[in-house]
Amino acid sequence: MMINTASPDTNRLAQELARRLSEALGQVLTGFGDTNAEPPALTIQPAAQAIAPALLARRHPGGPKAQRDARALYQRCLAHYREKVQRGLPEDDLGAAAAYFVLANLAALQNLDITESQLALVERQMRHVIGRHDAWLAADARERQSLFEQLAILGVLVGEGQAEARHQGEAALANVRLAARGYLVQLLGLNPDALRLTSEGLTLRAEVLMPELPTVDEPQE
Known about the structure:
Elements: H1 12-29, E1 43-44, H2 52-58, H3 64-85, E2 92-93, H4 94-110, H5 116-131, H6 134-138, H7 141-165, H8 170-188, E3 195-198, E4 201-204
Antiparallel strand pairs: 1-2, 3-4
Helix pairs in contact: 1-5, 1-8, 2-3, 3-7, 4-5, 4-7, 4-8, 7-8
């Protein structure tokens, strides 16, 4: 599964999350956020037609054929996530998708092997942060579905890409790491250099500053 340089579709929800999520996550990861209460559920009904494959393919480099091939790849990644990771559950869960996305990218950057217990811990952290975020509360169904699908697709793309790259050599691994770093910054506003995975879940090195996020224009329909 080849990693490409397509950019995530940064709609209003994704932009707001990317600009403010690192601060909120920092509060949770450094012990200042309230993580004792049960975090809100982030389940949504799947859209009748997937949104993100076409949006991501529009940003794929190359001509019409390359974009058609990319769209088909993204559709397969989304189907893989729902079947293998989500295990066929009828509702999409953005908290689970966010945790899978973050850990797939972090694993690629830091050469980690992720356990089910670590995934569960990070899912709880993501639910605390995203579920109480103003941008999530204000988002409509399409924005929520688009963000879920992008997290799921890109998480699978990086996770499966890393597994293949381990057999292909350092150049392939470097390509996956480059994509993983960009995805963490663009979609969730997370600085990869600040993140560590421990027995408590994600932790944040506060002394590592968040890189300035680029300004992204709203996509034209």
